[in-house]
Amino acid sequence: MELDDLPLAEFAFPGRLRDSLVAAILSGAKTSTSALLIGYEHANEPLPEVGERSAVVDSAGRRVAVIELIEVRVLRLADVDLQHALAEGEGDESVAQWRAGHEAFWHSAEVRAELGDPGFTVDDDTLVVTERFRLVHVV
């Protein structure tokens, strides 16, 4: 499959956070990610599947790498483990630190607007889609 034919993997929103996440992917530090199940449901998108490949895009929309999913899990926010948190490659040293950073993102105006819910919040029972991936190709 050609790079231009692959679905896009967009991490966070364009800007500083996306650029740092993409850099972590390119360096090999980031091998997992998390998303809210409700986000997939709201966008009427299917859940990702093991074996799927996608093109990682930077803030300018350039395709900079190809990743392949090697694990997809749906679990409660309270059940995210340290292995996953560390593999996100964002410098978190504990699940609590990982969760605080992700809650700040998920409670942001951008995510709330995307979900169409200005008061959206997560709790222990919020379902999270965790994905592990491998870097297949750097452009």
Q: What does this protein look like?
A:
With 139 residues, the protein is α+β, with helices and mostly antiparallel strands. It contains five helices and five strands. It has helices at 16-27, 37-43, 82-87, 95-106, 109-115, and strands at 8-9, 32-36, 53-57, 63-76, 127-138. A five-stranded mixed sheet has the order 1-3-4-5-2. A hairpin with a 5-residue loop joins β3 and β4. The longest helix has 12 residues, at 16-27. The two termini are 14 Å apart. The model has no long low-confidence stretch (mean pLDDT 94).
The topology string of helices and strands comes to EHEHEEHHHE
Tell me roughly what share of residues is in helical segments. Answer: 25-40%
The 3D shape can be described as globular
As a percent range, the share of strand residues is 25-35%
Low-pLDDT runs of 5+ residues are none
Q: What structural class do helix, strand and pairing data support? A: alpha+beta
Q: Tally of extended strands?
A: 5
Radius of gyration: 14 Å
Which assembly state applies to the chains in this document? single chain
Question: Separation of termini?
Answer: 14 Å
